[in-house]
Write a structure and sequence with these properties.
Number of strands: 3
CATH class: Alpha Beta
Structural class: mainly alpha
Strand content: 5-15%
Mean pLDDT: 85
Helix content: 55-70%
Largest sheet: 3 strands, parallel
Distance between the termini: 82 Å
Radius of gyration: 29 Å
Number of domains: 1
Strand order of the largest sheet: 1-2-3
Shape: elongated
CATH superfamily: P-loop containing nucleotide triphosphate hydrolases
Bound molecules: guanosine-5'-triphosphate
């Protein structure tokens, strides 16, 4: 699993709204991703599946939203069996987030590689440094006199 997490550029963390344990496991998966990827902005979407099984729901939508906010992820509730378009949309959304993330991190890397130009010394600074350099000599010569 580590190998897959390392080589991935984005994640869909899926739980079932009918299974509280699968929801609780999301936090653990998220921690694992964070350990492997130091980049805190790697795209992660939390997906609540089986949205059609409302009569056996164990996880309210609000809990999913709350968790996603807390972990800084996107959130969507879907039903893979009722609406396969939802599945396409989730993957599409993830791909968009990955490409956005990659373009911003490339810009940041470029910015980081540009060395700041050394500031040329201004006259005030030169005067101050000149005085500083002279002052021990002045003291020494007055002590001799
Ligand atoms: N009603 C409903 N059933 C679903 C949905 N998604 C998957 N299922 C059903 O849930 C069962 C398990 O689906 P799998 O794709 O095998 O997924 P799994 O990870 O093994 O999931 P679990 O067995 O539920 O832990 C299958 O019978 C699917 O048809 C959904 O959105 N709604």
């Amino acid at each position: 699993m580590l190998r897959f997490v390392q080589s991935s550029e984005g994640f869909l963390l899926v739980y079932s709204i009918t299974d509280l344990r699968s929801y609780e496991y999301i936090r653990h998966l998220h921690q694992h991703i964070r350990k492997v990827h130091s980049d805190s902005k790697i795209p992660i979407i939390i997906v609540a599946n089986k949205g059609d099984l409302l009569h056996v729901r164990q996880v309210p939508s609000d809990s999913g939203i709350q968790l996603a906010n807390e972990l800084g992820c996107s959130f969507v509730e879907i039903s893979t069996s009722e609406n396969c378009q939802d599945v396409c949309d989730v993957f599409h959304h993830l791909c968009k987030e990955i490409s956005k993330h990659q373009s911003t991190s490339t810009v940041e890397k470029r910015r980081g590689s540009i060395m700041p130009r050394p500031r040329s010394p201004n006259m005030q600074d030169l005067k101050r440094r000149f005085k500083q350099a002279l002052s021990p000599k002045v003291k020494a010569s007055s002590a001799m006199a």
